[in-house]
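Record peptidylprolyl isomerase, 236 aa.
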Amino acid sequence: PAAAVPRRRPARSEMGRDMILVPILLLRLLATAPAPARAEGVAAAAEEVKIEVLHLPESCSPKSKKGDLLNAHYDGFLASDGSKFYCSRTQNEGHPKWFVLGVGQVIKGLDIAMMNMCPGEKRKVIIPPSLAYGQQGYAQGKIPPNATLIFEIELYAVNKGPRSVEAFNQIDKDSDRKLSELEISQYLKEEFARDGKKRHPSAHDEILADIFKKNDHDGDGFISAKEYNVYQHDEL
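=>
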């Protein structure tokens, strides 16, 4: 379902194929503003997400928090009859999903359910309609109105998210609290060299232009800390 999985930009020509190979760190600059979470029907405050921990590894660090970049597999079921409406393992060649936690890239119930979760942990969660698809349901995803959802989740990785201080400082080589075209260009070259994937020669310039189009809001040729939009739990 559209709100239950991280959303992708539509691929276009060569850049579309190259974007599939872009390292995860680069997604930090390409991330767009999150879509609003769907939470209709009964007031969210009146219902809660029920969480059952199925497996907890001995080492539980780091624990997930808002703004972190998570990698996970999850299956979705209708609580009414147990039928499966979603399986991440059947999409994207079976690769786990990457998404930013707590910013509306998944339904609100999943944002809540995956807080304070550690790599290797497995959970079974029950999400009420108000924190899922509400009174409208989601016909395309075969989710009826007022449906309670069950997800079985396995979390693989918890990384600093798209707008972390660490990510900003890694690119900001001269520590002037803004990212220049040269700094981001160099960052792209280093990331591409690190993962060793073959790309079309135009990929670098196209991705660089896309980054500035999405982030340089005042058009001054730099991406400031404010434009980079570091999440509130971090401080520059």
